[in-house]
Amino acid sequence: MAAPEAAVAFSSSLKTDTDSVPATAGTTAGMAAALPATAAAAAVAATAARTGSEARVSKAALATRLLSLSGVFAVHKPKGPTSAELLNRLKEKLLAEAGMPFPEWTKRKKQTLKIGHGGTLDSAAQGVLVVGIGRGTKMLTSMLSGSKRYIAIGELGKATDTLDSTGKVTEEKPYDKIKQEDIEGILQKFTGNIMQVPPLYSALKKDGQRLSTLMKRGEAVEAKPARPVTVYSISLKKFQPPFFTLDVECGGGFYIRSLVSDIGKELSSCANVLELTRTKQGPFTLEEHALPEDKWTIDNIAQSLEHCSSLFPAELALKKSKPEESNEQVLSCEYITLNETKGEDDVIKTC
Predict the structure, then answer these.
(1) I want to staple 343 with a disulfide (CB 3.0 to 4.6 A). Which of 9, 68, 71, 253 is the partner?
(2) Is 122 a catalytic site residue?
(3) Distance in angstroms (rounded) separating the CA atoms of residues 215 and 197
(4) Is residue 261 part of a domain?
């Protein structure tokens, strides 16, 4: 009996060992299958980490490049926003591209980006707005002493409190007898070195406050005395009553709104500015130099700065600054207002 029992035991043992083999193989196969999945997940994680790291490096490089920009360029201001609002829009676009959204930017403490404009355009006006960035903000004052050129469309027969179409109509007079020759005949009176009374709605100040702000509050405001201004040329481009189009080149501190109003009075009528476009400021022209909003990128501005550097005399040219080493940044804002003998076109805002 011992032999058969041993045989049975051996057979049973053999069966048990044989049965265990498939289980072990299956486990090995499962582990083998799991390994590629784990490796793939690790690879994906590594790629994501690499991509995130590269993105951070790229943003840091853009931020450094943004901080290294210095010079003066021009943008195209559309109708609607004020010059200050447009400057903020430009600033926020550049900060977003560099990965520094405005709320975060203001919390940083080490570096400063300065960006400002020289020569304010009314919200209803459009055209060339000169912008300084970095050390270029120090060049903006020179922009105010240069000539400016405007295309203005005036409307005869209506006077407004702001001297343009955004104000309330304060007076209406006939204009039907006014001819093209009448307008052309009086333009010489407004050419050269003349005296001009600035508008009540302006950036000129009384007791530290803008006249326009006081006017909007309903406070009584006296007109500023006439002051010397320069008009290099005026020509009548079109006359289709009640509208007339002027091409004007003038110096700093000159108000197109006052010019159009004075022309209306000289014609024994009244007039206001319907549309105003600045086509040139200093060496910058609307067609050649002014960047539209869809071109407001760090690369495009860098190229524009390079292109525009040749527009200035050698003594005003800026040396290229070295890129900042730190990525810590801060936004500082300051307002620089020139002497009150200048007009609202002659306010520099630096942010």
Answers:
(1) 253
(2) yes
(3) 16
(4) yes
